[in-house]
Model the fold of this input.
Amino acid sequence: MKHHATDAHTFAAAYALGALEDGERQAFDAHLQGCEACRQEAAEFEATAARLAAAASQTPPVLAKAQVMAAIDGVRQLPPRVPAAAAAAPALADIVRRRMVPLALAASFAAIALGGVAVWQAQNGQDLKQQARQAQQQLDTVAAVLAAPDARTVHGKAANGALTTVVASDRQNKAVFTAANLPAPGAGKTYQLWLDHDGTMRPAGLIDHDGTVILSGNPATAGAVGLTLEPAGGSPQPTTDPLLLMTLPA
Done:
């Protein structure tokens, strides 16, 4: 996890999520032609973003379209944007020096995952407003991990067939766990995540269906992520054999 801010590889996440401008994307496209590691990492980020977006997506309210159409007539129109003279595509070294990419990435990722649903939910009561705020906070944290210069991704497959992904950042001291094809845990059961600290398993959160969770604890000092089936509410220590023990990327 030791890429510096001046390393071109740090743009794999922004590239995968469409957060680069046209000139930046062209420059990174050229970089990808000669960098197998970046091609693989960009593909992994694209797969992870798709899983995260699916986990956070919600069906918009039935009246949402009607409300939008009714409000259109009262919206002030902006003047047309006149494009500036085209400039030469920036060199990749110049792109890497820019500091705004993490912000653009966070905004892009939040748009992918929320799809504007939280705005409509906020009009339906305090409970929904709180849910929207919590969802936004989670997405902001996830986006920060994905945008971290040292973000690294590892994929795994649990014994029950679930497909898993962990994106971790030492600098952020945070890690995001995503599961797909996760079977229902059964009545009175839940899946529990663990961080392995030199052989000591410490609780890192619960998950009971496909989706994404932010691991609790200190992933920067952990060597692996574990997944077990536990009684509802979780356990202080694993009570079953691990379904998954995935080594965190170094």
